[in-house]
Amino acid sequence: MSPEQTSLAFRENSVRALEDAALRAAMKQAADTFGTKRADAFAPVADLEALRDRASDIREEVLANLTMYVDRFVASATHAGAVVHRANDAAAARELIRKILADRGARRIVKGKSMVSEEVDLNSHLEAAGMEVVETDLGEYIIQMEGETPSHIIVPAIHKNRRQVGKLFADRLGVPYSDDPQVLTKIARKALREKFLTADAGISGANFAAADTGSLVLLTNEGNGRMVTTVPPLHVAILSIEKMLPSLTDLPAFLRLLPRSATGQTITSYVSVITGPRKAGDATGAKELHIVLLDNGRTEINAGESRGILKCIRCGACMNVCPVYRTVGGHAYGWTYPGPMGMILTTLLTGMAKSHPLVDASTVCGACVEVCPVRVPLVDLILELRRRKVREGFSDPKEKRGMALFGKAAASPLLFALGQRLAGLLWPVVRSMGGKDVAGRMPAPAKTPLRRKLP
Amino acid sequence: MSGADRERLFLENAAKAAAGTCSVRGTGDLPDALGRIVAMDSPVYCPGVTELEKAAAPLFPVRAADYADAAVTVEEVFGAIAETGTIVCVSAGGRAVQAGLLPAHHVAIVRRERIFGTLDDLFAAVSGAPPTNITLVTGPSRTADIELTLAIGVHGPEKLDIILV
Amino acid sequence: MRVLLFGTCLVDTFFPEAGEATVRLLRRFGADPVFPRGQTCCGQPAFNAGYEAQARAAAEHFLWEFDGDAPIVTPSGSCAAMVKHHYPWLFRDDPKRLAQAKRAGERIHELTQFLVHVAKAHEAGLRGRGTVTYHSSCHLTRSLGVREEPLTLLSSLKGGTFVPMPDAARCCGFGGTFMAKLPEISCALADEKAASIEATGADTVTGCDSGCLMNIADAMRRRGTKIRVAHIAQLLAEGL
After folding, report:
1. What is the CB neighbour count within 10 angstroms for residue C1?
2. Mutation test of the interface with chain C: which of A450, A452, A453, A454, choosing the one with the most C Cβ atoms within 10 A?
3. HEC per residue, A157-178
């Protein structure tokens, strides 16, 4: 299933989402849970601001020297025995991976969660080539079964309730219906165990990559990430270039921040540090490790004013607190990445022409900035994209005219006062002209504005 | 931090992560502890390579030749981290890290002098020339993918027990 | 003490009573408020929507009208934040105005900041009545860092009760031009905010930003709720 980007229909998508009672309930419950969990997780942390500063500094250092760190990683990982490929764009990444798999006759592929693989639409390309791609992360497993795309970058099936999952499993797996998450999880364990053990290859993402040792780092909870990267003979990892860390010794700062920010855990059940494939004397690891480094526009973004978004470590904290995301869910954004980081990254990666409504999908309340563990300047980035939207001619013509008038009125007291009087006189007309969405929600202008009441 | 503090903190944090914990004074106390923890789980996989594993292996009548067929793996692991209640499994020395992944029950034996205080301590020790696989394990496998409700035991072990020696 | 009053375009046009209340409060606490007649708007609507040139035009006019050294007081957290945080950026290429902008940012006070830190109004024994709850506007809270001052003032009122709202700092859905561009989401957020307010059992909800209060009042109207929505300036002035 190849999902088409529907970001241009953000408003329509939102309206539909607002009318979906099950979705609203699921999102409300999620928002409340995330809030409590994050607060509880960070409460005992001694100096959170210093930790955030350190993580932010490390990410800035990487972006300031991105090419160097990527080159260094390529050298180290190759030295450790991995085969490293650079994919300039989505099509290159898809085809590269297909070829690696096809050359080895791989038919059954087990997959760990990887947002980048969704970004490049990898699954449908492999399935079109006749391969069986099995998503093994429980949330991804659910949505793959449902034929949907993830609606959150950490909890892909957050928009589904237990009854929906129970019905799905009963229908597709032929098991008795249950809506108990424990039971459903055990059903998935049983169904997927056989796939892990018989897979020809495993595909994973990576949360971080250490440039000094050429190591991939995966933070997971279920054990599927570990299975996918060590059980099949071939492991293909795909990650975007900004995931670099200078050194493996930089990892602890992120281990202290990411799990707490994402799920409220002190640490994930598993942190896997994979350095090359299985070597002589090893009894662990895939026999072959291929690493695909994806650019897909990031080098260009890093050279521009929006580079701050590349600091993102994909924790999901921003969307968990975003009033807009919490209300309409992730699918409304129309592409791989939702919420605050998503509206920015989507616009940058897919272009203003395909995404411009997303830059307005924010009240710029700043809740995201408060929780971002690496201090991505999310509000500033959104405002910068809004300026770009205006400059590149994607704003609504009525709005442009209105703002031009505003600019003049704001600079001229006479014009401003005139505008006030006209608004007062014409209010019924403004309202009846279909301004019900705006004017209908505002009181009529005061008979005597403040400037005429005061001496 | 003193060794005793590190040990106390480690046991506390491991328990918070839903791992079973147990502290014994010496190798002599292992059989009792293992007997209680492994109980009726069978067959048992034990690599029998390290001194502690060699002491543990004979305790189990039904042994699996391969961890893929085992109900429980009993093994000694590389170390532990007090800060997070984590045990550290590494692939160095021909260890099969997935022995602690596939069976439903993982019993990890760790020497108390191998407890690192912090994550930084651990990574300082292993970053020089990391082995193929280093896995930090904190508690059993889990997910909250359905309605953010915690479910323990997904693809990895459903139960993790740690024995400090 | 002479202070310059920046009414804000919303207060000037739609809620002059909040402006008048601000004047009464300032006078009561020894400030001599002057309302520069030619003031218009801080430029926030254009700035937040990506119209840099128009925002700068408004900001240039503001700097001209509010030139000098006197403190500037405004009954709006978001407008104070605009001047403090975004004016320097708007004038990054204009050294003379940049200096003025930085100075203006130092001189400007949101009303409750002024009342607590300068006027010590919370020690004046103002009167209150009924049960009041408080909405903590986004820019006020997160941009300006004003979290305690409104609560300090409200809890100092003699008579009357203050009851905190759950999720007081959660966005009400106004967001300036957001309410016009995505009205459905805006209304949904306003409804949630209204429900939080109703759950407190208060008869009055107050805040420091008229845009938020206007959005909340609209939600109340749609829900048929009879809770009074009033700017904190009005509540405090009524207690003089």
Report:
1. 12
2. A450
3. CCCCCHHHHHHHHHHHHCCCCC
Write out the two tokens for B59: 């305790």
Same domain, A435 and A287: no
In this complex, the chains that touch B, judged by 3 or more CB pairs closer than 8 A, are A
Q: Say what angle helices C183-200 and C210-223 make with each other, to 10 degrees.
A: 80
Contact A277, B132 (CB under 8 A): yes
Q: Which residues pair with A132 in a beta bridge?
A: A108
Strands in A181-228 per DSSP E: 201-204, 208-210, 215-220
The model's pLDDT over B129-149, given as tens digits with 9 standing for 90+, comes to 999 999 999 999 999 999 999
Which of C84, C142, C146, C174 to mutate against chain A (most A CBs within 10 Å)? C142
Model confidence over B71-116: pLDDT tens digits?
999 999 999 999 999 999 999 999 999 999 999 999 999 999 999 9
> Within a domain: residue A277?
yes
pLDDT tens-digit map of A239-292:
999 999 999 999 999 999 999 999 999 999 999 999 999 999 999 999 999 999
Give the domain-ending residue among A228, A263, A298: A298
pLDDT at C195 over 60: yes
- Percent residues over pLDDT 70 in chain C: 100
| Number of domains within chain B | 1
Query: Would you say residue C235 has pLDDT above 70?
Result: yes
Dmax over CA atoms of chain A, in Å, equals: 90
pLDDT of residue A2: 56
Query: Which of chain A's residues have a Cβ under 8 Å away from the Cβ of B19?
Result: none
Contact C35 A451 (CB under 8 A): yes
What is the complex's ipTM, to 2 decimals? 0.97
Please list, in sequence order, all residues whose beta carbon lies within 8 angstroms of the beta carbon of residue C195, skipping any fewer than 6 positions away.
none
Q: A-contacting residues of B 111-130, CB under 8 Å?
A: 118-120, 123-124, 126-127, 130
Does residue A418 sit in the same domain as residue A275? no
Task: Write the DSSP assignment of A121-164 as a string of letters.
Answer: THHHHHHHTT-EEEE-SHHHHHHHHHT---SSSSSTTTT--HHH
Predicted confidence (pLDDT) at residue A433 exceeds the cutoff of 70:
no
Give the model confidence (pLDDT) of B42-58 as tens digits.
899 999 999 999 999 99
Mean pLDDT within A386-411: 94
Give the phi and the psi of residue B5 in degrees, each rounded to 5: -65, -45
Domain count for chain A, please give it: 2
Mean pLDDT of A86-107: 98
Name the pairing type of β-strands A201-204 and B133-137.
unpaired
Residue C189 at interface with chain A, using a CB cutoff of 8 Å? yes
Contact residues on chain B for A161, CB-CB shorter than 8 A: 147
pTM value? Answer: 0.96
- Chain A neighbors of C58, CB-CB under 8 A: 406-407, 410-411
- Using a CB–CB cutoff of 8 Å, tell me whether C209 touches chain A: no
Domain of B66: which CATH number? 3.40.50.10420
Q: pLDDT tens digits for A314-346?
A: 999 999 999 999 999 999 999 999 999 999 999
Question: Both tokens of residue C198?
Answer: 């109703």
Range of the domain at A253: 43-298
- Looking at the domain assignment, is residue A303 inside a domain? no
Q: Contact at 8 Å (CB) between A436 and C222? A: no
Q: Categorise residue C142: left if φ over 0, alpha if ψ from -120 to 50, beta otherwise.
A: alpha
Contacts of A254 (CB under 8 A, 6+ apart): A55, A207, A208, A245, A313
Q: What is the pLDDT of residue A1?
A: 45
Judged against a pLDDT cut of 80, whether residue A428 lies above it is answered with no
Contact of B3 with chain A, judged by CB distance below 8 Å, is answered with no
HSE value, Cβ hemisphere, 13 Å, CA-based, for A416: 26
B149: containing domain:
3-164
Considering the domain architecture, whether residues A275 and A422 belong to the same structural domain is answered as: no
Residue A407: inside a domain:
no
